[in-house]
Each structure stands twice: as C-alpha cells, then as structure tokens.
Amino acid sequence: MAERGGLLGGPPGGRHRAPELAVGTALDENAQLRIALRTADPVDSDLLIHLTDAAALPEGTPGRATCAARTAG
Q1: Helix (H, G, I), strand (E, B) or coil at 50
Q2: How much is the pTM?
Q3: Can you say whether the dihedral through the CA atoms of 53, 63, 15, 27 is positive or negative?
Q4: 57 Cβ contact list (under 8 Å, min separation 6)
Q5: Based on CB atoms within 10 Å of each CB, which residue in 2, 42, 49, 70 is the most buried?
Q6: Which residues contact 70 (CB under 8 A, 6 or more apart)?
Q7: In which element (H, E) is residue 29 found?
Q8: How far is residue 59's CA from residue 12's CA, in Å, rounded to a whole number?
Q9: CA 8/CA 51 separation, integer angstroms
Q10: pLDDT digit string (tens) for 38-67?
Q11: What is the pLDDT of residues 28-46, one digit of tens each?
C-alpha cells in the first residue's frame, strides 16, 4: 500500500503521525475504506476510522489493524 500511496490519494505513511491533520480534508470526507494500525490513544483511533477499535488492539501482537467501510447512503 505504501508503494501505491500516490495512486490511492495520498501517502499512507504520512497519516500515522498526526491523524488530526487529515480530519476535515477532502480525502478524509471521501474515504470509503479506513484502515488503522494499533493506536496508543482511542482519540487517534476515532480520528482515523471513526471508531476506537484501533486503540483496543493488543500491543503484544504486532501488525494487526482494524478497518471501517463507509456504506452508501
């Protein structure tokens, strides 16, 4: 995914350091699929995927992620 970031609308690596910078942008508003690796703070998880689930992922199991899909409507 990082290799194809430009084709996906932006560099995914840049989103993990300051999720609050992406909130309210056109990319944020139009994203149909949101993916977040484990976050330390539920607020960051909520900013990324509009759920706190990414903060609940176990710290001892690296590489896990959670996603949220926007439904049409």
Answers
A1: coil
A2: 0.62
A3: negative
A4: 37, 38, 64, 65, 66
A5: 49
A6: 31, 32, 33, 34
A7: helix 26-30
A8: 21
A9: 22
A10: 999 999 898 888 899 999 999 998 889 999
A11: 677 788 888 999 999 989 8
